[in-house]
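Dear colleagues,

As part of the handover before I leave the project, I'm documenting each prediction I ran so the next person doesn't have to rerun anything. This entry is a single chain, and its sequence is reproduced below.
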Amino acid sequence: MSDRPKDYVAVSTVGTFKMTYMIPVAEVQKMVGEGSVFDKEYLDSLCEATVASIRREEVKDAGQRFLGELVQDVNVISTERAIQRIREENAMGDMTDEQIIKFINNWKEETTWNAKEQASKKDVVL
């Protein structure tokens, strides 16, 4: 076993979101041409054009929902490694090591997951 300092538990996760996009059919028809929305091949071409626009990042999302996180790895690391990882993975600008440690040590969320879930169930007023 290594005798390196072990100051922080570092967990890497991958977050997953469900995104929703919507484009008026009339706008998609401008991309692919006119046709009958009752024709399956034409509907497929509308869908393909919409997906292509989304992949090109031309469409604003109409909504998103967080689905969860998948843990990639867990390590116990030194203070020096913690600072290094924060600098590698975030735009911390001109923060000093001491400011980064203060940031890390302020780890507890003020809002719990259950409170966040309840807040997300409120009606949206447009």
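The chain has five helices and two strands. Residues 40-55 form the longest helix (16 residues).

All the best with the project,
I.
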